[in-house]
Amino acid sequence: NDSENLNETLEEFFGKSNTDPDEFANIEEKNTDSAEVQTTCDICEDTRFCICEEQYEWLQSLLQFLNSGTYLPGFRKLYDVSYTFLTSLFYEYGEEEDLVRYLSVARESAKKANMTWALARLCFLLGRLCTRKHKFSQARVYFEEAMGVLNGDFSDIFLFTAIHMNLNAIYLKQKSKEKSFQMMDKSSSLILGLQNYISNTDMEPVVLKYALKKAILSQDQKCERNACLLLAKTFTSLRRYDEALPYIERLQVLQNTTASSDCSPSRYYFQLADMYSHKCLPHLTLSCVKVASKTSCSMMDSLRRVDFIIKNASKLCGMKRPGNKTFPTQIAYHLKCALSSAVTKQEQELCTFISLGIAELCAAHRLYKEARSYIMKAVHSNIKRQYMVDIWVWLAWLYMLDGHSNEALDILNFMVSFSDCTQHQMGIIHNLIAIALQRRGMIKNAANHYCKALQISKDADNFQNQAVVLANLGTLCLHLKARIVAECFLVKSVSIYSSIPLVNNRADFIHVLLVLGYHYIVGDQKETGRLYYEWALLVAIEAKNLQGQLHAVQLLCQFYSAFMVNEAQCIIYNEYQLSLARKMADKVLEGQVIETISKLYLSLGTER
C-alpha cells in the first residue's frame, strides 16, 4: 500500500531526526604522520632563489640546484613555453636585465667550477631571455653553446629536447633553411619520442607538421597519431581551437581503425563535442555525444553528455530557450545511466541530486508517479538534513498535483511538528495544507491555514509567500462566490507581486493577473479585464516566459472573439500566438493557429 509505505518512511525519518545531532557528524581522521613527510621532488618544486645586489649566497645554491645530472620535477618551470621561471624560480630582482646580468655571473662561475649541467642550463635560460627580447642572434649563440656543453648527453632528455627545439626555432625565425632542415628530423624524433613532452617554443607546430607529413608518407600510423595528438594539444593550449579541430578529428578516425582493448574507441568524441559546441554546430555536437554513449558508461562521462545536451539541444530549434527552465528530455536517459554507474562513495552521494534532477524532469512532463519514485530514492539515501524539509514539501506538492490530497496532508502534518523547519518553510507548509484541505472541501480549515501562512510570511517579511497566500485566499473566495472580498485579496496580491524584483519566470504573478482579468471580464468590467490580460502578457514577455505569453495571448484572442469582437485585434494576437508556437516547436498548435488566421482573413474578405 503506497500510503502505508509513506507513513513508515515518514516515521523513520522523523525518528532519526529527533536523535542526537552528533550522530550525523561525519568525522574523518587524518594521518598526521604522512603530512610530515616531504620528498625530494616536493623540495625541488618549491625551490626559489632570492637575487639582489647585496647578497651573493644565492649563487652557490643556484649552481648546485642546476647542476643535477638528471631531470628533476623543479626543472619543468625552466623548460616550459610560458617563462614560468621568471616568477616561480627567481624573486626580488628589479628589471629583467638585472636577472640576465646575475645569470651571466652564474654562467661564468659554472665555467670556472667545471659544472657542466649548471652551465648548460644557464646558457639555455640566457638564450630564452634573449629570445623573449627578440635578440635572436645572441640567443642562437647561447643555445649553440649549451648544445656543445651537453655534447650529445641524453641524461636529461627534456633539457636536450628543449635546447634542440629552441635552437631550431631560431633557425626557422632567421630563415636559415639549410641548418633548420638538418635539425628537423632530429627535432621531430625528439618530440614524438617523449611521452611527457614539455612544450617550450611557439615554433613547435612547424616541426610537428613536418613529422606528421613524414609519418603519412611512410604510412606509420603510430607516429601519425602521436603527431596529431601533440598538434591538437599545442593548438588547444594556444587557444587556436579551429586549427586543433582537424587533428582531433583525425585522431578519432585513427582510433576507430586501430582501437585496442586498453583504449576506448570513443575517447576523442568528448573533445570533438566540446569544439563543435563552441563553433555552434549542435547537430555534430549531439552526434558525438550519441556515439560516445555507446561505449563510455562511467558516471562522469554520463554527466558530461548531459551537460553537452543541455547546452546544445535548444540550438536545434534555432532559439536559446528564453525563459524556459525545463531541461531537454534527452538528458533523462543519460541521468539514469549515471545513477546505474555509481561506484565510489562520492558518486553515491551525487546520486541523491541526480535522482532529484530526474524527478524534476518527470514533474515538468506531468509524470508525477515516476517523479515521486525518484524523490523517494533521494529520501532513502544519506542526504543532508538541511535539504530534507524542501524535499518532503516537494513530494507533498507532487502528490497534490496527482490528485492524492490525503497522502500530501499526511506528509505536511508531519512537517508541521518538525523542529528544523524555518519560518519560510513553515509558511509554505501551511499554505500547502490549506490547498489540500480546500480540495477536500474543508473550506473553514483551509481558510485558517491560509491565515496562519499569511501571518508567518508577514512576520518573516517574506513578500513572495505573502503574495502567493493572498492569491490563494482570493481564489478561495471566488470559489465561495464572495467576489468583492476575492477582488481585495487578488488586488493586494498583484500589488505585492509588482513590487518584487524580477527573480524568476514570474509564472505565479502572470497567473494572478489572468485570474483577476477574468474576474473583471465576467463582472462586466471588460476594459479593466483586458488591461490585466495585457499586463500579464507584458510581464511574461519581460520574464521571457513562453508558456505565460501563450496563455495570456490565448485569453486575449478569446476576449476579442467572444467578449469584445474585433477581428483586426484577433488577427494581431493570433499572429503573435503563431510566432510563439514556432518558438516552442509545437506543430499541432501552429497548424490550429494558421487555420484560425485563415478563417479570420476570409471573414474580412481579404483572401491571400
UniProtKB/TrEMBL annotation:
Pfam families assigned: TPR_7 (PF13176)
Domain of life per record: Eukaryota
InterPro entries reported for this sequence: SH3TC1/SH3TC2, TPR-like_helical_dom_sf, TPR_rpt
Protein name as it appears in the record: Uncharacterized protein
Species of the source: Aquarana catesbeiana
